[in-house]
């Protein structure tokens, strides 16, 4: 977010929206929901795998968005929590824990680790915090190799679990898709409510200005610890989902590169936005797959070019696309017929041409209204 | 005892590589307030230029100079063509733009040279010599000497030339510099160019050891980042001291602590960095900044 151009924290300045937009959003949401329910029944296992992967990384990104997008604290360690969650789940599967226990611990243990780190690190700012979080995957990978009794060492852990119940008549990939979809849905609903409530407002004010937060009786330290703990819990939860979908985890799961790519995906989707989180996950999973299909030996080249192109065109993320299009349209109409329509554009005249500097409209103010 | 000295010298030579890249990160951060993840990608691209030249029969030293020049031009072009677009926008977006450049440059290097690691000729003879009963390699000493030369050169540039003074002014306060008729945007370009040239030095020095491949510097970049942040991000001296500390601590822990061993030695400097930062958030050599509300 370009905080300088933002008038006030996201949660407090929601402009009124017309009935038409509301209805359009509801219809779009419904359509997406129907597609998500029906898709696995008619798709190949490969497609279902990709769809389920999107759910997995959507939850990891959701956690990252809580700490980075909403609270403004850089985290380069989200992959470590994803890996920890996956390892805990794998350990649970291999030791015949009930699935509910695995699910619980895969969120609670990373949350506890994240809280411990945050208790020490939350008084740091900016890059010092980035450094601490960066160290988590860097230390985590050799640790995972070393403690092979728990992790299976460099080989990793192959598990076979979460088979579809006979009575449902679903294939394994379909059943796993529905399981992760339900978890993702619950996580998204909880976070959506969280960021729109009192806690979300405290996140926003801490991001905006810690001194002001303090003067309002919001402790920046406690808020950051809370945000980081939630982010870690969601990271661990995504690890549970990862193991459900992939059925395998290794030290590769928590490498630093994953954290970096998650940060990129968050910004690409649109930070501090629920819809942006989903779009970011879509980007995270699909772009490498599509780039690989275009030319498997040029994946990095294509991914990098696409990433840069999106940043050039939509610095505020994919989620700002509809508003950008609308503004462009109204600007065009404005120059032809109705000058009174362009009052909004006059304030940011640069936004109408493609080479405008990054002056994103406040992405969070309207977009997190979607269901 | 002689083993100890050897371990420390090797650690210092690793530290010298981290320091070169860390200095590059500090250079860009001072000028633009950005952490540049593309530093590793630019360095690898420049190193590949040196690689192509040495394969064509050019001596390594000449290839190194060519790589530095290429790196300078590449850095300056990327600043002008890409990063300027993000300069006044959201810093998160700008940092992600450098990540995009990293991915893109890695992909470009792979496009021309493939992902397979390939041997790279060393600038220094692959021999050791004996000083007071201690064997040290020419490579380690050479790497350390080159870095010291680079540091002295940078120091001279910044302290005793008009260009250096102007660059410091721009880093300190771009608006006032512009009002004093300094060509701010050109100076930013030069800053990026210098940083990329420095990265090229690091790449050429480390390539014989790691073998050259597009992902060669990924790990070095992480170390350099740690050194830059530990050193306080704005302090070149701090970055070098922190890099040396990281290199030596890692090597000593790997050599002497059985629990740590070769696989976990990377964790030691990072745990140390975590502890130091929690105690001293501004880094070892950083200044405390206070922000007025």
UniProtKB/TrEMBL annotation, chain A:
Region of interest (Disordered), residue spans: 329-371
Keyword ATP-binding: no
Keyword annotations of the record: Cell membrane, Membrane, Transmembrane, Transmembrane helix
Database matches in InterPro entries: ABC_transp_permease (IPR001851), LivM-like (IPR043428)
CDD domains per record: TM_PBP1_LivM_like (cd06581)
Protein topology in the membrane: Multi-pass membrane protein
Protein location: Cell membrane
Record Pfam families: BPD_transp_2 (PF02653)
Start-end of Low complexity biased regions: 345-371
Membrane-traversing stretches: 23-43, 49-67, 74-93, 99-119, 126-144, 175-195, 225-248, 260-287, 299-321
PANTHER family linked to this entry: HIGH-AFFINITY BRANCHED-CHAIN AMINO ACID TRANSPORT SYSTEM PERMEASE, HIGH-AFFINITY BRANCHED-CHAIN AMINO ACID TRANSPORT SYSTEM PERMEASE PROTEIN LIVM
The protein's name: Branched-chain amino acid ABC transporter permease
Automatic annotation (TrEMBL), chain B:
Primary location class: membrane
Sections of the chain in a coiled coil: none
Keyword Glycoprotein included in the entry's annotation: no
Topological category with respect to the lipid bilayer: Multi-pass membrane protein
Cellular compartments annotated: Cell membrane
Pfam families, per database record: BPD_transp_2
Record has Lipoprotein as a keyword: no
PANTHER family for this protein: ABC TRANSPORTER PERMEASE PROTEIN, BRANCHED-CHAIN AMINO ACID TRANSPORT SYSTEM PERMEASE PROTEIN LIVH
Assigned protein family: Belongs to the binding-protein-dependent transport system permease family. LivHM subfamily.
Protein name per Swiss-Prot or TrEMBL: Branched-chain amino acid ABC transporter permease
Biological source species: Klenkia terrae
């Amino acid at each position: 977010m370009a905080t300088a151009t933002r008038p006030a924290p996201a949660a407090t300045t929601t402009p009124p929206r017309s009935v038409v937009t509301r209805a359009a959003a509801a219809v779009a949401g419904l359509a997406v929901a129907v597609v998500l329910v029906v898709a696995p029944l008619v798709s190949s296992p490969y497609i279902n795998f990709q769809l389920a992967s999107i759910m997995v990384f959507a939850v990891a990104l959701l956690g990252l968005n809580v700490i980075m997008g909403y609270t403004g604290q850089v985290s380069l360690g989200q992959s470590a929590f994803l890996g920890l969650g996956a390892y805990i789940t794998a350990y649970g599967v291999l030791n015949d824990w009930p699935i509910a226990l695995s699910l619980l611990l895969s969120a609670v243990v990373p949350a506890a680790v994240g809280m411990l780190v945050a208790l020490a690190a939350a008084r740091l700012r900016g890059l010092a915090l980035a450094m601490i979080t960066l160290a988590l995957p860097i230390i985590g990978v050799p640790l995972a190799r070393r403690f092979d009794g728990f992790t299976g060492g460099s080989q990793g852990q192959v598990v076979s679990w979460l088979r579809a119940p006979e009575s449902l008549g679903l294939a394994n990939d379909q059943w796993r898709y529905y399981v992760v979809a339900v978890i993702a849905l619950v996580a998204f609903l909880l976070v959506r409510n969280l960021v729109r409530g009192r806690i979300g407002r405290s996140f926003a004010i801490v991001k905006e200005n810690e001194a002001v937060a303090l003067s309002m009786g919001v402790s920046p330290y406690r808020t950051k610890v809370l945000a980081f703990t939630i982010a870690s819990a969601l990271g661990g939860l995504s690890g549970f989902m990862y193991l459900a979908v992939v059925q395998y985890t290794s030290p590769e799961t928590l490498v630093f590169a994953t954290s970096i790519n998650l940060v990129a995906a968050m910004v690409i989707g649109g930070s501090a936005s629920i819809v942006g989180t989903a779009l970011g996950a879509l980007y995270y999973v699909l772009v490498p797959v599509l780039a690989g299909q275009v030319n498997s030996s040029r994946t990095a080249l294509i991914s990098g070019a696409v990433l840069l192109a999106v940043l050039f065109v939509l610095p505020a993320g994919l989620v700002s696309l509809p508003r950008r299009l609308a503004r462009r349209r109204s600007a065009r109409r404005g120059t032809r017929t109705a000058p009174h329509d362009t009052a909004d554009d006059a304030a940011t005249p640069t936004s109408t041409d493609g080479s405008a500097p990054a002056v994103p409209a406040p992405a969070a103010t309207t977009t997190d209204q979607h269901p | 005892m002689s083993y100890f000295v050897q371990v420390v010298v090797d650690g210092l030579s690793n530290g010298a590589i981290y320091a070169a890249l860390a200095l590059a990160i500090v250079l860009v951060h001072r000028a633009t307030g950005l952490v540049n993840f593309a530093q590793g990608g630019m360095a690898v691209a420049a190193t590949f230029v040196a690689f192509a030249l040495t394969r064509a029969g050019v001596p390594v030293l000449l290839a190194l100079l060519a790589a530095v020049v290429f790196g300078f031009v590449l850095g300056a072009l990327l600043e002008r063509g890409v990063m300027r677009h993000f300069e006044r926008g959201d810093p998160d977006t700008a940092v992600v733009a450098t990540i995009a450049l990293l991915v893109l440059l890695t992909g470009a290097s792979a496009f021309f040279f493939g992902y397979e690691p390939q041997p790279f000729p060393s600038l220094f003879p692959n021999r050791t010599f004996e000083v007071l009963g201690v064997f040290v390699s020419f490579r380690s000493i050479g790497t350390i000497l080159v870095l010291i030369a680079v540091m002295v050169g940078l120091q001279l540039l910044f302290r005793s030339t008009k260009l250096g003074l102007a660059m410091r002014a721009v880093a300190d306060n771009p608006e006032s510099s512009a009002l004093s008729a300094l060509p701010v945007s050109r100076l930013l370009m030069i800053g990026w160019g210098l940083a990329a040239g420095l990265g090229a030095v690091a790449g050429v020095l480390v390539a014989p050891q790691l073998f050259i491949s597009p992902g060669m510097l990924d790990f070095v970049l992480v170390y350099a980042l740690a050194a830059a942040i530990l050193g306080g991000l704005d302090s070149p001296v701090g970055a070098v001291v922190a890099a040396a500390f990281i290199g030596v601590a890692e090597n000593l822990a790997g050599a002497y602590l059985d629990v740590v061993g070769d696989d976990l030695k990377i964790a030691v400097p990072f745990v140390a960095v975590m502890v130091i930062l929690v105690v001293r958030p501004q880094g070892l050599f950083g200044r405390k900044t206070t922000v007025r509300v």
